């Protein structure tokens, strides 16, 4: 090789994307180093060059001084693979991960004369791997849904392991490197290619490069695009020609290049440095020093894809998921968690699970002590908590119930790093349960009243046997009858409501005139004489429906009008023919219903203000009406003005 070329080659390596530093083996004084080394060291050239090696690296001297001495003594290389250390870079302490080799360089007699320090920084890769660890942790805590993602992650892990092996191979090659600087270059772990002339004729290629390119030495002497047609069109190739044309050095970072791999063209990724090759001031070629980073790039891409996938799984889950750190501070909250808690992700970061602005309660409404909070239990004991229901009172007073699963996130040494908490909003379920409990007490009360009255009538009849006047007899019998009817009505309501909830409510349709229906359902009110009933509109229409059920709806609405509008003398029933339906409206002139209640009164068990005392009921009447009308394909509703009265209406399709 021509001396200037050798000089160039040496310059190339000095600019290579791998840190190199050459020491005198006896004095340990640094004689030569490249920019990459300075970059990893984070110190200025003057602080290192010409200095005793440990002077600028006092912070790690204790750790590695013996190892370096040993290389000079024994002539055996020292390898450190992905070691963590604190380096003072640009004046401040930094936690870094590096892989380095102390490589002895011997003279002909085998005496160690120099030591080459080769170094690569792995901080980012190590961090990426840690993230995978954290992700895996998240997964263990999360749901079944995520198991597939988990498999992907373990694949990813093995890929990273592979890339680690590559680094290891690199080290092995370093170990084998020869004493001579040129041989060192030829066997360097970095791939080197030298091009010459405007066609980029391949002039020199080292083993590492041939291995990467998947070609043998026969490419030497061929123009680049002829020898390696597969790389045509890659931006990295254009960049190479550009260096030849302009003489400007340039570097590439994680550049994709199509490479022949086992006979197939695959995209692989490289960090490279292109340096112009000069002879007497003229550009005669370009040198390319490259390090393959495919494994790292793919691992990172994969990680990103997985992260994204995990994110979309978490965000479409029907459960809220929150991840907290060791001090209970949320570090992540998925969309559902934000929705259930009614706060944004940023707001989540500001609150801890035992934030005093949010009152946590037990199911019975008593305050939930900190020690009983599922997250606290998990952090304390390291054991998972399943299906614990707690109440949360928002700062604005609204209360929700959530069912919580919580699990610890543990680090490698088993220490608890935080926790994952998943929860569902069970407020509706809780409320229904509460309503049912309330209902049972209402129902027992409701049933007791007519039973007491019936019992009283029967006792009197029993006591007065033989000497009873016909008037008293009639009165007592009427009382017993009323009570029995009331009981029978209540039981019918209960049965109907039960049938509805079990889906056993069948509609048996016939066609009948509406007038007959209106006649029957009013009878009991008219005979009581307290209210006047006005029937108006299209009374002669025929409808097709379950007559008994529609009768029940009308009776319910009329009874309510009597019950809740006792002062209103008049009840109006209006029949109106619409385009495809008939609309029947029952209007009273009673107290009316406040607007905030009208949307609820058709709900099961719903009763408006019960302070009226004997205005009793089960809260089932309108619910049953609504169900019947729905089963018929019609609609039901109410218009009401407080102080003026209510109009309950329903439609039936014709
Ligand atoms: P209940 O068995 O309690 O009567 P309903 O389902 O029939 O149950 O009615 C629900 C609530 O709607 C009642 O508690 C009452 O407060 C209100 N309501 C129903 N009809 C009227 C009406 N005509 N006027 C005023 N309030 C009414």
Topology:
Elements: H1 3-14, E1 19-24, E2 30-33, H2 35-41, H3 45-48, H4 58-74, E3 78-89, E4 92-106, E5 112-121, H5 123-141, H6 147-176, H7 181-186, E6 191-196, E7 201-205, H8 207-213, H9 224-227, H10 235-246, E8 250-261, E9 264-279, E10 282-292, H11 294-316, E11 320-325, E12 330-333, H12 335-341, H13 345-349, E13 359-361, H14 374-381, E14 385-393, E15 399-410, E16 416-425, H15 427-463, H16 470-501, E17 510-513, H17 514-528, E18 532-537, E19 542-545, H18 547-564, E20 570-577, E21 581-587, H19 595-598, H20 621-631, E22 636-641, E23 645-653
Parallel strand pairs: 18-20
Antiparallel strand pairs: 1-2, 1-5, 3-4, 4-5, 6-7, 6-10, 8-9, 9-10, 11-12, 11-16, 13-14, 14-15, 15-16, 17-19, 20-21, 21-23, 22-23
Adenosine-5'-diphosphate is lined by residues 560-561, 564-565, 588, 590, 593, 601, 606-608, 617-623, 646.
Q: Would you mind describing this structure in some detail?
A:
The structure is a single chain. The chain is an alpha+beta fold and 654 residues long. The chain folds into five domains: 103 residues, PAS domain (Beta-Lactamase, 2-Layer Sandwich); 194 residues, PAS domain (Beta-Lactamase, 2-Layer Sandwich), CATH 3.30.450.20; 107 residues, PAS domain (Beta-Lactamase), CATH 3.30.450.20; 65 residues, Signal transduction histidine kinase, dimerisation/phosphotransfer (DHp) domain (Helix Hairpins); 144 residues, Histidine kinase-like ATPase, C-terminal domain (Heat Shock Protein 90, 2-Layer Sandwich). Helices cover 43% and strands 28% of the residues. The protein has 20 helices and 23 strands. The strands form five sheets. A six-stranded antiparallel sheet has the order 12-11-16-15-14-13, with helices on both faces. It is elongated. It starts with a helix and ends with a strand. It binds adenosine-5'-diphosphate. The site of adenosine-5'-diphosphate has 19 residues, from helix 18 and helix 20.
């Amino acid at each position: 090789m021509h001396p200037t070329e050798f000089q160039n080659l040496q310059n190339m390596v000095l600019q290579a994307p791998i840190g190199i530093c050459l020491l005198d083996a006896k004095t340990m004084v640094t004689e030569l180093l490249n920019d990459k080394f300075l970059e990893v060291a984070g110190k200025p050239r003057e602080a290192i060059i010409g200095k005793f090696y440990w002077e600028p690296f006092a912070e790690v001297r204790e750790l590695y001084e013996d190892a370096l001495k040993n290389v000079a003594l024994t002539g055996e290389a020292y390898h450190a693979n992905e070691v963590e250390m604190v380096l003072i870079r640009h004046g401040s302490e930094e936690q870094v991960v590096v892989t380095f080799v102390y490589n002895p360089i011997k003279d002909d007699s085998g005496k160690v004369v120099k030591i080459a320090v080769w170094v690569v920084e792995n901080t980012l890769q190590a961090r990426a791997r840690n993230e995978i660890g954290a992700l895996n942790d998240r997964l263990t805590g999360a749901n079944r849904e995520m198991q597939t993602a988990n498999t992907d992650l373990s694949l990813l892990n093995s890929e990273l392991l592979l890339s680690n092996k590559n680094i290891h191979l690199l080290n092995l090659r370093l170990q084998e490197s020869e004493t001579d600087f040129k041989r060192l270059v030829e066997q360097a772990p970095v791939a080197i290619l030298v091009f010459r002339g405007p066609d980029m004729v391949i002039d020199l290629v080292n083993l590492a490069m041939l291995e990467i390119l998947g070609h043998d030495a026969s490419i030497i002497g061929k123009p680049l695009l002829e020898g390696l047609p597969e790389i045509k069109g890659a931006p990295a190739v254009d960049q190479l020609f550009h260096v030849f044309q302009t003489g400007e050095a340039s570097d590439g970072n994680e550049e994709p290049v199509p490479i022949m791999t086992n006979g197939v063209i695959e995209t692989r990724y490289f960090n490279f440095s292109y340096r112009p090759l000069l002879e007497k001031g003229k550009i005669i070629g370009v040198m390319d020093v490259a390090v393959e980073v495919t494994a790292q790039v793919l691992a990172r891409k994969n990680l990103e894809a997985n992260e994204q996938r995990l994110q979309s799984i978490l965000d479409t889950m029907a459960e809220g998921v929150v991840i907290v750190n060791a001090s209970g501070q949320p570090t992540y909250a998925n969309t559902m968690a934000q929705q259930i808690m009614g706060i944004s992700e940023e707001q989540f970061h500001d609150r801890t699970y035992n934030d005093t602005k949010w009152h946590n309660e037990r199911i019975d409404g008593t305050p939930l002590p900190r020690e009983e909070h599922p997250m606290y239990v998990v952090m304390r004991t390291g054991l998972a908590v399943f299906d614990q229901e707690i109440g949360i009172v928002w700062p604005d007073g609204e209360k929700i119930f959530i069912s919580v699963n919580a699990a610890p996130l543990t680090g490698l040494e088993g220490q608890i790093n935080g926790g994952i908490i998943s929860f569902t909003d069970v407020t509706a379920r809780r409320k229904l349960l509460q309503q049912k409990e309330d209902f049972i007490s209402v129902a027992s009360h409701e049933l007791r009243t007519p039973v007491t009255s019936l019992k009283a009538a029967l006792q009197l009849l029993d006591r007065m046997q033989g000497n009873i006047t016909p008037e008293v007899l009639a009165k007592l019998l009427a009382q017993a009858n009323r009570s029995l009817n009331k009981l029978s009505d209540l039981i019918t309501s209960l049965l109907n409501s039960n049938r509805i909830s079990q889906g056993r409510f069948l509609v048996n349709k016939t066609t009948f005139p509406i007038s007959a229906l209106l006649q029957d359902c009013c009878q009991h009110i008219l005979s009581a004489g307290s209210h006047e009933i006005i029937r108006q509109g299209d009374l002669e229409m025929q409808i097709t429906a379950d007559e008994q059920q529609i009768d029940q709806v009308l009776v319910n609405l009329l009874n309510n009008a009597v019950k809740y509008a006792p002062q209103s003398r008049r009840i109006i029933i209006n029949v109106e023919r619409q385009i495809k339906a008939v609309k029947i409206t029952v209007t009273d002139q009673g107290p009316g219903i406040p607007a905030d209640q009208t949307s609820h009164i058709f709900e099961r068990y719903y009763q408006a203000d019960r302070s009226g005392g004997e205005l009793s009921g089960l809260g089932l009447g309108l619910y049953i009406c609504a169900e019947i009308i729905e089963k018929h394909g019609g609609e039901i509703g109410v218009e009401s003005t407080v102080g003026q009265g209510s109009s309950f209406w329903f439609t039936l399709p014709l």
